[in-house]
Amino acid sequence: MMVTTHAAMGAALVALLPLSPRLAGVAALAAFCGGVFPDLDLLVGEHRRTLHYPDYYALCALPLAGLAVLRPLALTACVAAFVGAAALHSVADAFGGGLAPRPWLSDDHRGVYCRLGRRWLHPRHWIRWDGAPEDLALCGVCVCVVLLAADGHVRTLAAATLPVSVAYTALRKRLPDLAPWLVE
Length: 184
Ligand SMILES: [Zn+2]
Known about the structure:
- This is Metal-dependent hydrolase.
- It comes from Halarchaeum rubridurum.
- The protein is mainly alpha-helical.
- It has helices spanning 3-15, 21-36, 56-70, 74-92, 133-149, 153-171, 175-178, 180-183, and strands at residues 112-114, 119-121.
- Helix 3 packs antiparallel against helix 4 and helix 5 (133-149) runs antiparallel to helix 6 (153-171).
């Protein structure tokens, strides 16, 4: 899935929670950032392994959400939203395509790395590849949810992901030839 889809999905999920208006905006913003965070391992380390933790993020998100319910402060809400969105991102990558430069060929068994199982989870191809039409559609739905349900700067950020996602979707199948360094 595109990083923009992950970001919008995290923000959309938090925007739908019944949070107090005091916390809702910053928590959705933190979730947007948490949705982006795992893919920073495109820049350092091994993609979908170094900063992707489908197991540990999820295990941490539950007590952090409990703490945010018991102590509803901006800090606790933001940390829980950030880690929860990073967990959602990492788990969702197992339902996308593989890691190879041309994931539409289904020629790679690596979806996301699971440390507890010490193995790669296989890509399920529900979203066939990053930048597939269904990926863009999911991104669009999540952006609409953020625009309708959230407040504050996260709405601007979410809206800004749409033109980026449309351009990426349009170019995705040509990227291995246009910019091989970007997809390898
Ligand atoms: Zn990812």
